[in-house]
């Protein structure tokens, strides 16, 4: 009998259920299934047929139930076959879902097994029928009891078993997305969800990269059920791994020149970008997901990677997370830099903690990766860049001055973070066109609005932007023009930086140049002095950079522009003739400045030389300007003295006198320009084809300068009204006038000395004249020092010298190093004066000091980095030679004091040079040192040194020179010991030792030598011992942990100062001879500061372990493994603290004198107990998670602190409060004794909060120990002794003495009793 679908449908429609059942019973299952298959393939009435069959197959009967199951088992594969139309399949699945709940338990089990087997076998098909699986699982859950093996399980339990089986089996990669989608509709417990999430995350690596974004999308939807943190962590971990693999493959490619990429980089980046968008979209909809995401980074930045950094920056676009994200990134970046700094400065930490990945590098990588269409990350990067630069830029010091010198290498964490911000913005500007306008606008806004704060970091960024992309900036020229409008209101340093940066653009853009000139002309007539200074700065910069035809090419030209377009533009639009007219016009504007304040004129004089050097064709105009200005103050009558008019150089305003014309700078500028032109003419063509006009002013100037020299030598100080009787007090107008005159005259002497030296050509007579000029200068200088020193400490500093850097270099070199026979007679004139030699070296040191502080010096070439470094090299060579060798001509008065002080000058110069080079040219230190080897021609090691080549070897070669010098100082008698020279030598050794590689043999030798000196030197010189011990600590900490060293030093200090209990005799110990009775207190302060550093390291280590423990706790499977990893760090922290406690135990029993050392010890003890408390809290946290036994070393540490240190702390507190110092004499004057006691008591009273702080930290430590004892079930309090109750203790003797003192204070004379009461305090203070 053939089944007819129409009959089934009609019977179903007639509500004739009995007839329908009878008809269906007459058909076999195969016949029914054939009907359904045919109907489904035709797409006709299939749903009606299925409904009819369901209607005629009641689930309550076994026949109906079997038929229903057969129907399901047939329809599911049919739907998967792909033979049916999509709408038919959807209708069928919908019908089956509606009827699933009517199936019996066994039927549901069979259906579920069908799905599980299909998944295991990897039979995916179209995946449409999988929508049915969640319904089957839901129906299973509702079943109360299901047979399982020989027993029974509840539906819930059976579902759990099923999911477990499913997640444990192998999945076909093609099925993963469908399965993840399917699980969204399955009701899952948290444990089941975890199974599923773990399985899906494991499958990431087996999927094709393009399938990751849709899977992530489904996984995020699934995370609405829970496991949010796990989902996010898994996604981030996957991409972190892919990035690492990509990087390694890239390195391999570079080294092997082969293509080994398993995944193309652009493909990976695009997938990452899509995934980031999916996650951000999910976080927008589910704030719980956002909170979990941020929480994972709050504990530690170790989980950060370029992908997660990009994700964070994308999340920052959601307003509610913006502040949190940037605070989090800022904290991670600064913490990463601080951790790096701490780790680099300690060998102890380097051995314990592996080097972690740099957060800064991740941020830079994120910028690189964002090129691949990550527009959603770009905005966050820009915000981050400015956030870092605003937060960590240089801070304003007093009066708005920058506290950090510009141009130094970034070293502190804050400087490095600021530099990172600049890098992010610069790279962002280069690669992302949409944000360029915003970056430029923000930078310019900050330059204008942050006038009260230093903006050097923004100027550097702006300069880099101009250099890297000049043509792009021209598109935003209107923004630059707007900024120019504010020039006259900005600080001078900002204007200089801005105009220097914008120079390349002015050569290209006519409109920009015209706008600037207009602004500068207005500024020239500004009512603000700074505005007029800005105008001069701007005009001088323009003169330097717009070349006139025929000018010499200069290596010091303005910034080069990389763009070829710009070069073409410059040559096509501008020509030298136009430049000449332009420059002459500017010069005429600048001439107006010669009638303005001294500050404005000064800028002009300081700038003219650079203009002339770069634009030599302007010589005639510049020299004429200077010549006419000079003639105003020159006395043409040859017989009149002095040769200059000083009265017009000053101006009075009421009672106040001001400098109007910086005459010495005017003459200096004229001389420098004249010498430059003469040198240029000599080196140019040999035939004299110069203009007559040029010859005219040059010869006139030479005549004036020669006449001035002759008459200045003849002039006495009385001719300038500056003799010894003159008043130099700055309180009166006459004194101020005389001071101004004196400075001008001294400046003139210096300028004339330089001019005459250059013109002398090593003639003996000329050098005698030069020495005469110096004697006049020196005489006036001495009077000024003597007079200005009255009423305050006399100043030994030389006034700011007008000698040029090049001249100082030449002068010092010829004085000490020139051995040529032809010059010897002339040079012997200069060498005969010790004062002149000292003056030359002190001016050189002054120039070096300027370089150290600001990176440039006054005068010609002072702004050129190349020439200033050359100057440093020359000075290094000369000073080193002068220090290590006796001078060729022995000084007339060869007194030891003079010799020593000259050596000190040389050492001071060398120390400043090494510091400057390390600060400003760290990569050129080897180059600097290599210039010194000529100083040691006679040394046997010299040839060996040159061959060595290594930085450490070269540095150590010179270190040995200074070590020998120090050793010879220490080898003599203590009376011959020159403390200042020894201190300078130690400082130089300290600076040079920073160049040594801590892993090198030379570094070990350096430490060995330093330890030897400390052990064998017993001079009672506090300053020297302080320097030497500081050097020892700084070296030792890079070699190994210094705690054992601290212990030995503490034992020495205890031995020399005695015990707080006078009845106790301390065992005599002397590990280090440098610690003696006189230097012990200083040594104690150094030891305590070093102990503080050790405590910092231990504190950092414990904090790191706490964050590791927290992350371990979140992953139970890794807890034991985490504990094993933590063990070395725990052990190291305990050992450090143990040795430190022993050292402090020695120090706390020492009779330290009342004052700084006592307070420092109390603070160190407080800190120690605070860190012990932190360690106890860590073990409380660990015990709470693991219920493990406490390490034996920790128990030993507790025992050491409780039974040894704490009782001694209370004894020391009593000692510090009573002030009963041992030692001292009894017969001291009462008055002095009273003053000493009052001062000591006041000091102690101010600092007594150190005592309650210490007691509180001890009590906190004991409190947490009790908590830990309960948790770990170990009695740690057995080692603690009961604390002394000190609150209401009354010392009868002290009270009696105080009462007597109160009574006797009203009487004119003090009683003997009161004297006795105060005596111990006095003794203690003296010690």
Automatic annotation (TrEMBL):
Q: What processes in GO biological process is this protein linked to?
A: DNA repair
- For bias type Acidic residues, the affected ranges are 1304-1317
Where the record annotates domain FANCI solenoid, the positions are 66-283, 377-540, 802-1032, 1046-1296
Q: Which residues form the FANCI helical domain?
A: 288-369, 554-785
UniProt region (Disordered), positions on chain:
1299-1327
The UniProt record lists the FANCI solenoid 1 cap domain at: 6-56
Molecular function via GO: DNA polymerase binding
The domain of life is Eukaryota
Listed transmembrane segments: none
InterPro entries from the entry? FANCI, FANCI_HD1, FANCI_HD2, FANCI_S1, FANCI_S1-cap, FANCI_S2, FANCI_S3, FANCI_S4
**Which named protein is this?**
FA complementation group I
Organism per entry: Salarias fasciatus
């Amino acid at each position: 009998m053939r089944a007819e679908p129409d009959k089934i449908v009609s019977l179903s429609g007639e509500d004739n259920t009995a007839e329908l059942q009878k008809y269906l019973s007459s058909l076999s299952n195969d016949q029914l299934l054939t009907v359904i298959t045919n109907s489904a393939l035709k797409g006709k009435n299939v749903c009606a047929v299925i409904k009819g069959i369901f209607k005629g197959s009641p689930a309550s009967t076994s026949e109906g139930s079997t038929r229903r199951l057969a129907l399901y088992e047939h329809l599911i594969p049919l739907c998967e076959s792909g033979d049916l139309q999509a709408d038919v399949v959807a209708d069928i699945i919908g019908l089956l879902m509606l009827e699933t709940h009517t199936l019996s338990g066994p039927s549901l089990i069979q259906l579920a097994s069908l799905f599980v087997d299909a998944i295991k076998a990897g039979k995916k098909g179209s995946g449409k029928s999988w929508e049915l699986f969640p319904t089957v699982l839901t129906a299973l859950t509702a079943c109360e009891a299901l047979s399982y093996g020989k027993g029974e399980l509840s539906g819930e339990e059976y579902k759990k078993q099923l999911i477990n089986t499913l997640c444990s089996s192998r999945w076909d990669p093609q099925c993963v997305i469908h399965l993840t989608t399917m699980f969204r509709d399955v009701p899952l417990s948290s444990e089941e969800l975890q199974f599923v999430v773990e399985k899906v995350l494991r499958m990431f690596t087996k999927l094709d990269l393009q399938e990751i974004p849709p899977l992530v999308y489904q996984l995020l939807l699934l995370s609405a059920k829970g496991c949010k943190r796990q989902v996010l962590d898994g996604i981030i971990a996957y991409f972190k791994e892919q990035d690492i693999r990509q990087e390694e493959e890239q390195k391999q490619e570079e080294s092997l020149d082969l293509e080994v990429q398993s995944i193309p980089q652009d493909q990976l980046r695009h997938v990452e970008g899509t995934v980031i968008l999916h996650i951000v979209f999910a976080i927008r909809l589910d704030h719980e997901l956002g909170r979990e995401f941020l929480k994972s980074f709050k504990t530690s930045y170790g989980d950060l990677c370029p992908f997660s950094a990009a994700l964070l920056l994308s999340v920052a676009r959601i307003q509610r997370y913006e502040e949190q994200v940037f605070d989090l990134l800022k904290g991670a970046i600064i913490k990463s830099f601080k951790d790096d700094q701490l780790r680099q400065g300690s060998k102890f930490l380097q051995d314990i903690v592996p080097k972690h990945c740099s957060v800064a590098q991740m941020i830079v990588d994120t910028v690189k990766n964002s090129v691949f269409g990550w527009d959603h990350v770009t905005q966050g990067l820009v915000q981050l860049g400015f956030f870092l630069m605003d937060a960590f830029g240089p801070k304003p010091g007093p009066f708005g001055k920058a506290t950090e010198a510009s141009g130094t290498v970034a070293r502190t964490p804050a400087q490095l973070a600021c530099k990172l911000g600049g890098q992010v913005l610069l790279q962002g500007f280069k690669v992302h066109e949409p944000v360029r306008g915003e970056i430029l606008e923000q930078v310019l806004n900050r330059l204008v609005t942050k006038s009260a704060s230093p903006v050097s970091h923004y100027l550097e960024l702006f300069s880099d932007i101009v250099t890297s992309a000049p043509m792009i900036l021209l598109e935003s020229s209107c923004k630059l023009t707007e900024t120019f409008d504010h020039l006259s209101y900005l600080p001078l340093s900002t204007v200089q930086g801005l105009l220097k940066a914008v120079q390349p653009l002015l050569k290209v853009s006519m409109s920009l140049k015209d706008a600037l000139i207009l602004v500068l002309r207005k500024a020239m007539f500004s009512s603000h002095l700074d505005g007029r200074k800005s105008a001069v700065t701007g005009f001088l910069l323009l003169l330097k950079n717009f070349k006139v035809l025929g000018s010499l090419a200069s290596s010091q030209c303005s910034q080069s522009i990389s763009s070829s377009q710009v070069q073409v533009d410059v040559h096509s639009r501008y020509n030298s003739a136009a430049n000449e007219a332009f420059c002459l016009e500017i010069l005429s504007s600048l001439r107006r400045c010669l009638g303005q304040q001294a500050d404005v004129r000064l800028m002009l004089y300081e700038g003219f030389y650079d203009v002339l050097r770069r634009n030599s064709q302007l010589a005639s105009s510049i020299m004429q300007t200077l010549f006419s200005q000079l003639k105003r103050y020159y006395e043409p009558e040859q017989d009149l003295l002095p040769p200059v008019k000083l009265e017009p150089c000053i101006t009075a305003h009421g009672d106040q006198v001001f400098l109007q014309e910086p005459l010495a700078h005017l003459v200096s500028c004229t001389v420098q320009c004249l010498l430059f032109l003469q040198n240029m003419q000599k080196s140019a063509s040999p035939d004299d084809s110069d203009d007559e006009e040029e010859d005219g002013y040059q010869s006139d100037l030479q005549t004036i300068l020669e006449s001035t020299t002759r008459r200045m030598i003849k002039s006495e100080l009385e001719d300038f009204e500056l003799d010894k009787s003159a008043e130099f007090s700055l309180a009166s107008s006459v004194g101020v006038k005389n001071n101004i005159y004196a400075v001008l005259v001294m400046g003139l002497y210096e300028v004339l000395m330089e001019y005459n030296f250059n013109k002398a050509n090593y003639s003996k007579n000329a050098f005698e004249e030069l020495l005469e000029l110096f004697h006049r200068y020196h005489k006036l200088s001495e009077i000024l020092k003597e007079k200005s020193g009255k009423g305050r400490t006399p100043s030994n500093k030389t006034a700011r010298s007008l000698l040029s850097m090049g001249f100082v270099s030449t002068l010092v070199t010829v004085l000490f190093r020139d051995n040529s026979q032809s010059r010897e007679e002339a040079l012997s004139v200069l060498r005969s004066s010790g004062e002149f030699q000292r003056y030359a070296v002190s001016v050189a040191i002054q120039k070096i000091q300027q370089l150290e502080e600001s990176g440039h010096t006054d005068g010609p070439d002072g702004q050129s980095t190349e020439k200033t470094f050359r100057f440093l090299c020359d000075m290094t060579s000369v000073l080193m030679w002068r220090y290590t060798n006796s001078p060729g001509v022995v000084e007339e008065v060869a007194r030891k004091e003079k010799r020593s002080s000259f050596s000190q000058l040389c050492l001071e110069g060398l120390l400043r040079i090494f510091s400057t080079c390390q600060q400003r040219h760290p990569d050129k230190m080897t180059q600097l040192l290599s210039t010194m080897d000529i100083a040691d021609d006679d040394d046997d090691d010299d040839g060996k040194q040159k061959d060595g080549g290594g930085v450490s070897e070269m540095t150590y070669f010179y270190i040995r020179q200074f070590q020998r010098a120090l050793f010879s100082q220490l080898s003599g008698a203590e009376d011959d010991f020159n403390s200042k020279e020894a201190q300078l030598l130690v400082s130089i050794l300290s600076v040079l030792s920073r160049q040594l590689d801590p892993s090198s043999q030379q570094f070990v030798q350096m430490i060995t030598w330093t330890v030897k000196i400390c052990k064998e030197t017993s001079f009672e010189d506090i300053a020297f011992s302080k320097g030497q011990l500081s050097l020892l600590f700084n070296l030792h900490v890079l070699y190994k942990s210094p705690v054992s060293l601290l212990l030995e030093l503490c034992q020495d200090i205890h031995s020399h100062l005695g015990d707080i209990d006078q009845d106790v005799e301390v065992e005599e110990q002397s590990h280090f001879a440098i610690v003696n009775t006189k230097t012990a207190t200083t040594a104690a302060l150094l030891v305590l500061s070093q102990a503080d550093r050790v405590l910092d390291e231990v504190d950092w280590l414990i904090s790191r372990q706490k964050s590791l423990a927290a992350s371990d706790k979140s992953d139970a499977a890794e807890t034991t493994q985490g504990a094993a990893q933590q063990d070395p760090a725990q052990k190291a922290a305990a050992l450090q603290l143990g040795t430190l406690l022993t050292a402090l135990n020695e120090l706390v029993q020492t009779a330290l004198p009342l004052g700084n050392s006592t307070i420092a010890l109390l603070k160190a003890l407080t800190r120690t107990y605070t860190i012990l408390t932190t360690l106890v809290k860590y073990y409380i946290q660990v015990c709470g998670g693991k219920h493990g036994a406490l390490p034996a070393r920790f128990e030993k540490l507790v025992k050491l602190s409780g039974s040894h240190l704490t009782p001694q702390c209370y004894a020391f507190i009593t000692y510090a409060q009573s002030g009963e110092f041992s030692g001292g004499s009894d017969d001291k004057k009462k008055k002095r004794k009273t003053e000493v006691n009052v001062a000591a008591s006041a000091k102690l009273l101010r600092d007594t909060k150190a005592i309650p702080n210490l007691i509180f930290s001890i009590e906190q430590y004991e409190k947490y120990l009790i908590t830990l004892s309960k948790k770990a079930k170990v009695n740690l309090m057995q080692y603690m002794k009961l604390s002394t109750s000190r609150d209401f203790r009354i010392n009868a003797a002290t009270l009696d003495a105080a009462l007597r003192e109160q009574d006797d204070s009203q009487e004119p004379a003090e009683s003997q009793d009161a004297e006795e009461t105060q005596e111990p305090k006095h003794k203690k203070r003296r010690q």
